[in-house]
Write a structure and sequence with these properties.
The protein is of the alpha+beta class. The chain is 39% helix and 26% strand. The chain is rod-shaped, with a radius of gyration of 32 Å.
Length: 156
Amino acid sequence: MGNLNKQQGVVLVAAMLMILMVSGIAVSVMSGSALDSKMVNATQESYRTESSARGDTEKVIKTELAKGGNSKFLEIKKKDNSNSEATLLSSGSKVVMTYENQNINIPLLDCPPNFAPTPDMKCNYLKLTTSQSYGKGNKHVMTINTGIAQEMIGGN
């Protein structure tokens, strides 16, 4: 019993230090897992937005093709550049069609090389730019560019 009176609490201090270290390690592991969770959620949202934007692009192409002769794809860039862009879809994504034929004096350009091309075949080059906002406060923008080379006979 006399030995108990002489103890200074060294074991108690050592145990408290060990508890403090283990608690610090636990806190850092938990904060790291919270950061990982945020990164996974941001990546998933980015993939969802990309998928949605691609779907909207395909929807615009399908809709314009279904219009037949009234499709904006069939319009040729006017000499005064008044129709160089057209907004085709604004719900969810904004899809803007741009006529890529730069020379307004020659409305159609030669098509990319094909196997056995049709003589006098020219191409109307279009670009669809699909933009969709995402993220907290919509501070990020996903933009997808799609090129279309539309074959047309003649052109001059």
